[in-house]
């Protein structure tokens, strides 16, 4: 292992200390011999029946035995390794359908005592892995004797249909000479691997499984390390173990399925000994089958718990399981695949915290990139998080007026007093936040920053679009974009307070996008304490713009009064306009479309063009 334990699954099995019987074979010398390090490349390239004698491998060199398919290699002598701080491996054996075996006289001596310092990975002294095995196709490694591994003894990776039998790994000298992190076998990216009839004496995991399937460990004798922990656990399965110890926040993102324990026996001792300790994250453990567990001498009762204070999402594939099982969720850094929606369908009452950077792969589609739903939920961001839409990958300066599809960034559908706060969004490809089918919802302290679109072709990057919602508040929020800061399509009892809008089209109510009367109504919408900076449109070249002839293709100059604008109140609107087309107020109403407006405190300066009004609000002279 690279440290105390990087295992997602940490299993400790107590067993008796009786030594296994090791078979030995010694064939006649009918093949090719390796008696010097310099012989290795030639012999492995030309021979399929190889005998390895005694020699020393130079410091910093790997004894790489890249064997041809069907090769049989026999260790006959003592191989040792020169000292230098490095990562190794000291040996590396690869091949398909190979047999690697040891005679009764051989020894693979890692000379770990030259590296050990009592600190393992927690020192500046590099220590090499002893052996890396990458073997397939029914390969067999048998009757192998290893002594004093500097670090991890045997790493098995990218292997399948592999059997290791009758090994003796003896690093017991490390008990008194400072051995640490001397795992017996570390297994990753492998399947159908069997290790059996083997003994390990070391100072860390006897066996550590990082990743794999269809793995069998039979008749293992583990002494002195974490595999036979006489003073603590008989059997330990936990999903909260890190390099720095237990977090007490187990994760279920790496599943432990079909874990079989059979014929586990032994005696525990010490004031903290415990027969069984199981700590699984939500949904992390299922379909286990244990029998013949005979462990005695424990001083503490068993512990089996699925309680956890939070679940982490660190990969896109974690999402469904974590959201289904957890109500206190932490989201780390990862990339969402192109064309996929990060859908966070949260249980009622969930708190979700963004801690890292989430980015999204590029493909042309309509999105949304994110979709968050729930009742009475809290969604928040830590100081280090960022939701990065990578809009620059989609922007082309034309927005909706091009053949290139661009996705909405986020859709929110939340109810029941839900709160979304302290969220940072960067570079939305299209509309940033869509709020629909929501009520009793508050968004506070957001920062939407698509200012790169000013120079890289951003368009139609609305900050917030609100539809089919009521009792929604957005406050204390900044938006830098290239379209509406806020656009209300439909809703009632909507409050927008202390909005800081830069670079876009300002604050807008755009009603009429739906085909039914009920969905084309807006009631009781309030914008207050807000500022619009460097925007093409202020409130909706205009300070205030109200028109009933606006379409996606521009102004028709034929206003319709079919959607009524009633009781429109404007108070204390002030600012400075600029540009040759700037205009303080523009009002264009259809017949009977506007009535009972009340405006006061309108103080807009710097307009180049005179006001235009075909309807006059109370309290304002156009």
Descriptive tags:
4 helices; Pectate Lyase C-like; elongated; eleven-stranded parallel sheet; mainly beta; 622 residues; 15-stranded parallel sheet; Glycosyl_hydrlase_28; PbH1; 4% helix
Verbal overview:
The chain is mainly beta and 622 residues long. The chain has four domains: 32-228, Single-stranded right-handed beta-helix, Pectin lyase-like (Pectate Lyase C-like, 3 Solenoid), CATH 2.160.20; 231-309, no CATH class; 311-540, Single-stranded right-handed beta-helix, Pectin lyase-like (Pectate Lyase C-like, 3 Solenoid); 543-622, no CATH class. The protein has a 15-stranded parallel beta sheet that branches. Strands 2, 3, 4, 6, 7, 9, 10, 12, 14, 16 and 18 form an eleven-stranded parallel beta sheet that branches. The radius of gyration is 35 Å and the shape is elongated.
Number of strands: 58
Overall number of structural domains:
4
pLDDT averaged over residues: 86
Q: How much helix, percentage-wise, in residues?
A: under 10%
Strand % is over 45%
Q: Which structural class fits the helix and strand makeup?
A: mainly beta
InterPro entries: Glyco_hydro_28, Glycosyl_hydrlase_28, PbH1, Pectin_lyas_fold, Pectin_lyase_fold/virulence
EC number: 3.2.1.15
Family: Belongs to the glycosyl hydrolase 28 family.
Catalytic activity: (1,4-alpha-D-galacturonosyl)n+m + H2O = (1,4-alpha-D-galacturonosyl)n + (1,4-alpha-D-galacturonosyl)m
Could you outline the blueprint of secondary structure elements for this entry?
Elements: E1 10-13, E2 32-34, H1 40-46, E3 49-52, E4 55-57, E5 63-66, E6 72-75, E7 78-81, E8 91-96, E9 99-102, E10 107-109, E11 131-136, E12 139-147, E13 154-157, E14 160-170, H2 174-177, E15 185-188, E16 190-201, E17 207-209, E18 212-223, E19 233-238, E20 241-242, E21 245-246, E22 256-257, E23 260-267, E24 274-279, E25 285-286, E26 289-296, E27 303-305, E28 311-313, H3 319-325, E29 328-331, E30 334-336, E31 342-345, E32 351-354, E33 357-360, E34 370-375, E35 378-381, E36 386-388, E37 410-415, E38 418-421, E39 424-426, E40 433-436, E41 439-444, E42 447-449, H4 453-456, E43 464-467, E44 469-480, E45 484-488, E46 491-502, E47 506-509, E48 522-528, E49 531-533, E50 542-547, E51 550-551, E52 554-555, E53 565-566, E54 569-576, E55 583-588, E56 594-595, E57 598-605, E58 612-613
Parallel strand pairs: 2-3, 3-6, 4-7, 5-8, 6-9, 7-10, 8-11, 9-12, 10-12, 11-13, 12-14, 13-15, 14-16, 15-17, 16-18, 19-24, 22-25, 23-26, 24-27, 28-29, 29-32, 30-33, 31-34, 32-35, 33-36, 34-37, 35-38, 36-39, 37-40, 38-41, 39-42, 40-43, 41-44, 42-44, 43-45, 44-46, 45-47, 46-48, 46-49, 50-55, ...
Antiparallel strand pairs: 1-19, 20-21, 51-52
């Amino acid at each position: 292992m690279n440290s105390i334990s990087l295992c997602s699954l940490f299993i400790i099995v107590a067993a008796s200390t009786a030594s296994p019987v090791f078979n030995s074979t010694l064939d006649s010398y009918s093949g090719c011999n390796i008696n010097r390090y310099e012989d290795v490349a030639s012999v492995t390239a030309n021979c399929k029946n190889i005998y390895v004698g005694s020699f020393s491998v130079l410091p910093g060199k790997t004894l790489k035995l890249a064997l041809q398919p069907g090769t049989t290699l026999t260790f006959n002598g003592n191989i040792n390794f020169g000292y230098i701080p490095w990562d190794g491996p000291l040996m590396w054996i690869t091949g398909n359908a190979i047999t690697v075996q040891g005679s009764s006289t051989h020894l693979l001596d890692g000379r770990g005592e030259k590296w050990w310092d009592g600190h393992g990975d927690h020192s500046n002294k590099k220590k090499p892995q002893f052996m890396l095995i990458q073997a397939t196709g029914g390969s067999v490694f048998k009757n192998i004797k290893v002594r004093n591994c500097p670090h991890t003894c045997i790493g098995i990776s990218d292997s399948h249909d592999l059997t290791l039998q009758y090994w003796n790994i003896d690093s017991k000298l490390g008990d008194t000479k400072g051995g640490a992190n001397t795992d017996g076998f570390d297994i990753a990216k492998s399947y159908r691997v069997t290790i059996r009839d083997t003994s390990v004496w070391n100072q860390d995991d006897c066996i550590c499984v990082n990743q794999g399937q269809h793995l069998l460990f039979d008749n293992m004798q583990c002494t002195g390390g974490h595999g036979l922990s006489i003073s603590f656990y008989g059997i330990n399965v936990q999903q909260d173990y890190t390099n720095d110890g237990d977090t007490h926040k187990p994760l279920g993102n790496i599943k432990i399925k079909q874990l079989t324990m059979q014929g586990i026996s032994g005696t525990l001792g010490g004031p903290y000994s415990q027969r069984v300790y199981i700590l699984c994250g939500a949904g992390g453990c299922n379909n286990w089958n244990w029998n013949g567990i005979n462990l005695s001498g424990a001083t503490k009762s068993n512990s089996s718990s699925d309680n956890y204070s939070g679940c982490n999402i660190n990969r896109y594939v974690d999402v469904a399981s974590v959201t289904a099982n957890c109500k206190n969720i932490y989201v780390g850094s990862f990339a969402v695949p192109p064309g996929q929606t990060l859908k966070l369908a949260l249980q009622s009452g969930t708190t979700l915290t963004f801690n890292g950077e989430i980015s999204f792969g590029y493909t042309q589609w309509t999105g949304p990139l994110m979709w968050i739903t729930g009742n009475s939920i809290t969604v928040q961001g830590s100081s280090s998080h960022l939701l990065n839409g990578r809009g620059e990958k989609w922007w082309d300066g034309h927005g909706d007026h091009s053949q290139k599809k661009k996705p909405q960034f986020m859709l929110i559908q939340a109810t029941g007093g839900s709160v979304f706060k302290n969220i940072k969004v960067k570079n939305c490809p299209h509309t940033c936040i869509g709020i629909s089918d929501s009520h009793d919802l508050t968004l506070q302290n957001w920062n939407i920053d698509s200012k790169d679109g000013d120079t890289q072709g951003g368009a139609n990057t609305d900050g917030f679009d609100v539809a089919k919602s009521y009792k929604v508040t957005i406050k204390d929020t900044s938006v830098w974009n290239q379209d509406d800061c806020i656009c209300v399509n439909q809703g009632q009892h909507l409050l927008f307070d202390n909005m800081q809008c830069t670079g876009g089209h300002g604050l807008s109510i755009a009603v009429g996008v739906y085909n039914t009367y009920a969905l084309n109504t807006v009631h009781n919408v309030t914008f207050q304490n807000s500022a619009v900076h460097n925007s093409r449109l202020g409130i909706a070249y205009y300070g205030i713009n109200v028109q009933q002839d606006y379409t996606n293709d521009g102004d028709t100059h034929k206003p319709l009064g079919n959607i009524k604008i009633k009781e429109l109140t404007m108070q204390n609107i002030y600012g400075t306009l600029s540009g040759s087309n700037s205009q303080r107020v523009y009002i264009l109403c259809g017949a009977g479309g506007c009535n009972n407006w009340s405006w006061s405190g309108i103080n807009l300066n710097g307009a180049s063009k005179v006001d235009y009004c075909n309807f006059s609000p109370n309290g304002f002279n156009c």
